[in-house]
Design a protein that fits this description.
This protein has 393 residues and is of the alpha/beta class. 39% of the residues lie in helices and 18% in strands. The protein has a seven-stranded mixed beta sheet with strand order 4-12-11-10-7-5-6, with helices on both faces. A four-stranded mixed beta sheet has the order 1-2-3-15. Helix 3 runs parallel beside helix 11, helix 12 packs parallel to helix 14 and helix 13 packs across helix 14. The longest helix has 22 residues. The chain is globular. The protein starts with 11 loop residues before the first strand and ends in a 10-residue tail after the last helix. The structure holds pyridoxal-5'-phosphate. The site of pyridoxal-5'-phosphate (PLP) has 14 residues, from helix 4.
Length: 393
């Protein structure tokens, strides 16, 4: 395999709910959720059952043919999508969901320019990469797609200034994930909606990481009520199988003509059956509500760690999408936590990122907190010898 992933030295062989096991049968609480893919948990029985059933009937069916599993999914997606978003394009990943949105914006507006935010992450194919901010991803692949601009977030005046006659769309993540778990305020998102309406510019939300219950609502846009013209989804929508979803207003999506944007695997029946089951789980097990409740609890516990720590700068997030910013890089904390049975992500050099399955139990969160407490104290002792904040140490 290409050497493009920063590897963790364990072989994961099994998963169930919020837990995974390695090849030596060591158990871990998975706060990575496979990079935010496992909102319904690892191997949810309803997803497993749906995949098994569909695998025995029909695995492959190109979207040029109608298919019952795909129709069922489209109906369910339309049922939960934000109001007014009703035409759906199915692909295989987050970056593809964004590519579709970018092409839709250009095609439906007849204009070329896309405005994204500093700190944004939208994927690594050439269009999505052109909207991604970080130099380390962009520089090696220049020249990128032209007519992409980045502006600072939370500055509506700046946004008004940079939008021109050429602007097709503004593209934002309601919470920047890779960019360090930075939540855009409801005021800012509502302001963006107004500006885009005023200037006849499309508003695109990349909810690849924030969607599907993660932030405490089915979609993060529901917090502000600012509904985009196009929404991009992926990661957890198919319960762990690869999917990308782009949903747009009918007038916007109808600008694409037959053959202009397609994908061999888009709408694959096996993936659609898994996604339909995952949507049932999301709705029936009220996972968004659960993410809200448990997210508040988790954040509160992390804030208690912060209150007793000299090396934590900030705890922030929405629902079960939580970041903890440190004064130092977090590699040691990631490794030590892993050794103690807790898998965590980073989001930049000095930020821990938690994207656990939304089915995580309160007791599992308590275990994560107690492991982190120990690891952070160890780290604090190493980084700032003699200044431990652990009164009992
Ligand atoms: C907000 C956002 N957009 C797009 C992507 C790209 O998704 P994928 O890795 O499935 O291509 C990601 C991946 O982390 C993401 O977080």
């Amino acid at each position: 395999m290409a050497n493009v992933y920063a590897k963790r030295p364990i072989v994961v062989t099994r998963g169930k709910g919020a837990l995974v096991w390695d090849i030596n049968n060591k158990q871990y609480i998975d706060c990575t959720g496979s990079y935010g893919v496992c909102n319904v948990g690892h191997c949810h029985p309803r997803v497993v059952e749906a995949v098994k059933r569909q695998a025995e009937i029909l695995i492959s069916c190109h979207a040029s043919f109608y298919n019952d599993a795909r129709s069922k999914l489209l109906e369910k997606l339309a049922g939960i999508a934000p109001k007014g978003l009703d035409k759906i394009y199915l692909s295989n990943s987050g970056t593809e969901a964004v590519e579709c949105a970018l092409k839709l914006a250009r095609k439906s507006s007849g204009k070329p320019e896309i405005i994204a935010l500093m700190g944004a992450y939208h994927g690594k194919t050439m269009g999505a990469l052109s909207a991604t901010w970080d130099k380390k991803y962009r520089e090696p692949f220049k020249p990128l797609v032209p007519e992409f601009k980045h502006v600072s977030p939370n500055d509506l005046e700046k946004m008004k200034e940079v939008i021109t006659e050429k602007t097709a769309a503004v593209l934002v993540e309601p919470v920047r994930g890779e960019g360090g778990i930075r939540v855009l305020s409801n005021d800012y998102l509502q302001g963006l909606r107004e500006i885009c309406d005023d200037k006849h510019v499309l508003l695109i939300f990349d909810e690849v990481q924030t969607g599907f219950g993660r932030t405490g609502k089915n979609f993060a846009c529901e917090h502000s009520g600012a509904i985009p013209d196009i929404i991009c989804l992926a990661k957890s929508v198919a319960g762990g199988l690869p999917i990308g979803v782009t949903i747009a207003r009918k007038e916007v999506m109808s600008s694409l003509k037959v053959g202009e944007h397609t994908s061999t695997f888009g709408g694959n029946p096996l993936v659609c059956a898994a996604a339909a089951a995952a949507i049932d789980v999301l709705v029936e097990e009220k996972l968004a509500e659960r993410a809200n409740k448990l997210g508040n609890y988790f954040k509160g516990e992390l804030q208690s760690l912060q209150a007793n720590s000299k090396i934590i700068r900030e705890v922030r997030g929405l629902g079960l999408m939580i970041g903890v910013e440190f004064r130092f890089d977090v590699l040691n904390i990631l490794n030590k936590s892993m050794n103690k049975g807790v898998l965590i992500l980073d989001a930049g050099r000095n930020i821990l990122r938690f994207l656990p399955p939304l089915l995580i139990e309160k007791e599992q969160i308590d275990t994560v907190i107690s492991v982190l407490d120990k690891v952070i104290k160890e780290e604090e002792n190493e980084r700032l010898p003699g200044s431990t904040s652990d009164q009992n140490a």
